[in-house]
């Protein structure tokens, strides 16, 4: 039959749940008989114009609801209806009032900042200046907020003058503003072979071409970067040198120097995403310190202080500042003054740094928990909040993730981060931060450990 495409018209709610509801409808009406093979989630995402993460989450939810089953090495199929309603949902599902154990979202612990943000917001509410924060702001009005950005950049190891600091609504918005301001349709943007995939979606929307720079066990391969520079005339290279997602790799001083030298030699802009940088002890100097005139540096409080505090800062070479200001104005008119004010006060009084240190200690404690439960064989862990796990031979990442979802644990397959899905390793990324209850985290790791010990073989694993 032709590829199954769900009808999402007249459906509300999150897209992944709309897909699940359409799937349930098509199964109930007979459009999808038992045993029908569904398209790979990345293919479905392409046809629907959605992110692979959305369709992967939909398939995981459908497995949990016993609508689908996965078979290692074969794919995902419609499950036969059960005659016994009590058996309609797998009995091994981790049942909790708060749903599946979510190890798929790479966000800091959300609760640490709550009392501090509540206090700061109460202070703002009691002061005379609240009215001005509710009014339209110009760049001139945001001087103290840019000063907060300058202070935060300094804690990240980057020095900047005030006119080189651009406040944005988190790191993702900052990257979008850079692409809008400095690249033209048809320009070539290089990315790491495993990368932050929203950048690919942004580039596609802006008609910017993309290509992948090879990686090895130490991160970006400088020789691959130079090959692209010699033969393809790229405009920019987007990379995450510290605690790279998903691999956790931090580039060495030697590779950073080599990449900076190549970029300078060929006139390639570097877009340095350092949102995880503050979580690492003794990190190497940022690329922005090595090539300050050609590096756009991106940082954010959303990955180190609180996920919902959508405040980030760009450090830009002065020559690009006017274009970036225009890009911010075009995309959002102004970075919201209220959230900037909260960030300003947290940074100025030192609370943002304290909270980052608290997050770093929490990450260390949870990484130790990963080591105790999963061991270290083949697992690539670091100081941040995510872990990279190459899968045992015989496992396909999508089948592994579906089996984990059946047990009530959500993880991300490595293919989700690859520019070319066929080149992706059979690996998973798990995130250990956003589940606030460490007992739930430990249970999720224990369930995942059991799946890792399974040996896929001749008989397909039914999930």
From TrEMBL:
UniProt GO MF annotations: DNA binding; DNA-binding transcription factor activity; pyridoxal phosphate binding
Keyword Cytoplasm included in the entry's annotation: no
Source species, domain of life: Bacteria
Pfam families: Aminotran_1_2, GntR
UniProt family annotation: In the C-terminal section; belongs to the class-I pyridoxal-phosphate-dependent aminotransferase family.
PANTHER family for the chain: HTH-TYPE TRANSCRIPTIONAL REGULATORY PROTEIN GABR
Name of the protein this chain belongs to: HTH gntR-type domain-containing protein
Organism annotation: Pararhodospirillum oryzae
């Amino acid at each position: 039959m032709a590829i199954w495409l769900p009808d999402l018209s007249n459906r509300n709610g999150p897209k992944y749940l709309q897909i699940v509801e359409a799937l349930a409808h098509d199964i109930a009406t007979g459009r999808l008989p038992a045993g029908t093979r569904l398209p790979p989630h990345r293919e479905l995402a392409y046809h629907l114009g959605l992110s692979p993460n959305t369709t992967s989450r939909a398939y995981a939810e459908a497995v949990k609801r016993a609508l689908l089953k996965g078979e290692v090495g074969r794919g995902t199929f419609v499950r036969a209806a059960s005659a016994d309603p009590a058996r309609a949902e797998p009995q091994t599902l981790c049942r909790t009032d708060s749903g599946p154990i979510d190890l798929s979202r790479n966000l800091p612990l959300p609760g640490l900042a709550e009392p501090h943000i509540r206090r700061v917001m109460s202070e703002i509410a009691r002061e005379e200046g609240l009215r001005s924060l509710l009014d339209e702001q110009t760049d001139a009005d945001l001087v103290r907020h840019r000063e907060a950005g300058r202070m935060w950049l300094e804690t990240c190891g980057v020095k900047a003058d005030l006119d080189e600091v651009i406040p944005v609504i988190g790191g993702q918005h900052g990257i979008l503003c850079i692409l809008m301001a400095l690249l033209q349709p048809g320009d070539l943007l290089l990315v790491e072979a495993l990368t932050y995939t929203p950048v690919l979606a942004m580039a596609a929307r802006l008609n910017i071409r993309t290509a992948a720079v090879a990686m090895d066990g130490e991160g970006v391969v400088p020789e691959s970067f130079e090959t692209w520079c010699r033969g393809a005339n790229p405009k920019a290279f987007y990379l995450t040198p510290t605690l790279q997602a998903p691999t956790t790799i931090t580039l060495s001083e030697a590779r950073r120097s080599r990449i900076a030298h190549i970029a300078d030699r060929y006139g390639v802009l570097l877009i340095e995403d350092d949102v995880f940088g503050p979580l690492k002890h003794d990190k190497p100097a940022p690329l922005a310190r090595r090539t300050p005139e050609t590096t756009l540096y991106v940082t954010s409080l959303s990955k180190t202080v609180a996920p919902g505090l959508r405040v980030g800062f760009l450090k830009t070479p002065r020559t690009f500042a006017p274009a970036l200001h225009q890009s911010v104005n075009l995309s959002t008119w102004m970075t919201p003054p209220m959230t900037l004010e909260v960030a300003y006060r947290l940074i100025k009084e030192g609370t943002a740094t304290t909270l980052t240190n608290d997050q770093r200690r929490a990450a260390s404690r949870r990484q130790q928990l990963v080591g105790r439960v999963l061991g270290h064989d083949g697992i690539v862990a670091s100081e941040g909040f995510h872990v990279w796990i190459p899968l045992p031979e015989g496992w396909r990442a999508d089948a592994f993730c579906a089996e984990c979802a059946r047990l009530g644990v959500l993880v991300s397959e490595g293919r989700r981060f690859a520019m070319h899905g066929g080149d992706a390793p059979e690996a998973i990324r798990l995130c250990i931060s956003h589940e606030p209850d460490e007992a739930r985290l430990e249970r999720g790791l224990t369930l995942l450990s059991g799946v890792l010990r399974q040996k896929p073989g001749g008989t397909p694993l039914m999930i």
